[in-house]
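Researcher: We plan to redesign the surface later, but first we want a full-length starting point. Tokens attached.
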């Protein structure tokens, strides 16, 4: 009986490790970014995007830069800063689900705290966040089979165009 229990436990542990954590370089989810939906190169990263439970984790700085944002990773303090240079800046800390947003606008205060589905994780020196983090920068996150697309919200851009057209 003990042999069966030990075998069952070992199989469960292997399955749990296979379903979460850093994905090998030949696995994971492909990431398409921007309006042109260009595939993000993940070959030089310690691991490709991966699932933490049911949350897709993506390489923070690489995705941010692909979307045109500045991205800094302070490995000593385990803190990342993502800045769109126009509307807001986000500060994330490893191990924390809380993201602090500081608004750049003087007319509207967009500063806030946002709780992520999973904490910022660091895999071999590279920070990973839930893909949904990028919705806070007015991007859409769409999931397909083996692929995720993170791109500026076209609906938002259309709404702005409609608003500006209505001013004439």
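Model: Full-length starting sequence:
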């Amino acid at each position: 009986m003990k042999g069966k229990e030990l075998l069952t436990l070992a199989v469960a542990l292997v399955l749990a490790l296979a379903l979460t954590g850093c994905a090998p370089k030949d696995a994971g989810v492909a990431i398409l970014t921007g309006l042109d939906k260009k595939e993000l190169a993940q070959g030089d990263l310690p691991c490709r995007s991966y699932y933490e439970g049911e949350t897709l984790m993506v390489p923070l700085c690489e995705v941010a830069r692909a979307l045109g944002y500045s991205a800094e990773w302070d490995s000593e303090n385990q803190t990342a800063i993502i800045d769109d240079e126009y509307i807001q800046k986000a500060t994330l800390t490893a191990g924390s689900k809380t993201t602090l947003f500081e608004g750049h606008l003087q007319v509207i205060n967009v500063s806030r705290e946002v709780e992520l589905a999973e904490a910022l994780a660091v895999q071999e020196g590279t920070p990973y966040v839930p893909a949904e983090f990028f919705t806070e920068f007015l991007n859409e996150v769409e999931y397909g089979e083996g692929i995720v697309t993170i791109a500026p919200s076209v609906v938002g851009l259309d709404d702005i165009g409609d608003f500006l057209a209505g001013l004439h």
